[in-house]
# Entry
Amino acid sequence: MGTELGKFLDVLDQRSLVPLDCKAVLLVGSAARGWTNVRSDYDFYLVSGTPWPGDDRDSIRLPLDSPTIQTEAFYADGRRWEMTYWLDDQIDQILAKVSWVEFERDRAAGQMLVSHEQAFLERLANCVPLAGEEWVSRRKQELDSSAFRSLVVARSLAAADDAVEDALGQVESGQMESAVLSARKAFGHAIDALLEQHGQYGSYSPKWRPHRFRAAMPSGISFARYWRLETMRTFDEKCPSDWINEVLTLCQDISLKVEV
# Structure
């Protein structure tokens, strides 16, 4: 992996894609976790003190004092490489949104972060630094001491509870097809809460849930049972209530045991 990491940074340098005042270059996403496949992209976050002079068409607006991040992309070695450029002060602002003060003020604080901000913090937790190891170490410590984990767990639990209530009401009304879909939704949110409690973030991308589960190995539910329910192997369309009841019981059990 060390040789590969050096190659990543060399390629970015050769294409003049690293800011002169760069504070850190992070390999993020599936490549950082060792979960890539032959079609996976390479994703990088680059943090600097001044804005990247990219094309406005490739900018993303965020609710921050410095309101945009820039992206660049190219293809090399048969893969798409995508760089997202962040400012150091933007990271200060994002971390401030997940302080304990903000969390205690509003436990529905999941609404404070837009998707790109949340993805940054989730990916920061499991990134591989290509440059700026001290910066990354400091930011990870700030993330670990913040309310971010509690925030995302609380959000997932609330979403799971809402979906459980929907499913129960639909079962009582005989709306079994809708109840199945609501139970599946509740299951996904409940498992996400369980994994987030163990620091395995990534609810925005359910495709990695099996990998996250194996990385967390939470007690109380085996991977075999998780995967059986995730893939609905025991679902019987002639008697959907059996599967629904098992899923909803598990969701309620997780909600009682997971700590925010």
In short: The two ends are 35 Å apart (CA to CA). The mean pLDDT is 93. The beta strands are 22-28, 42-48, 59-61, 68-76, 79-87, 128-131.
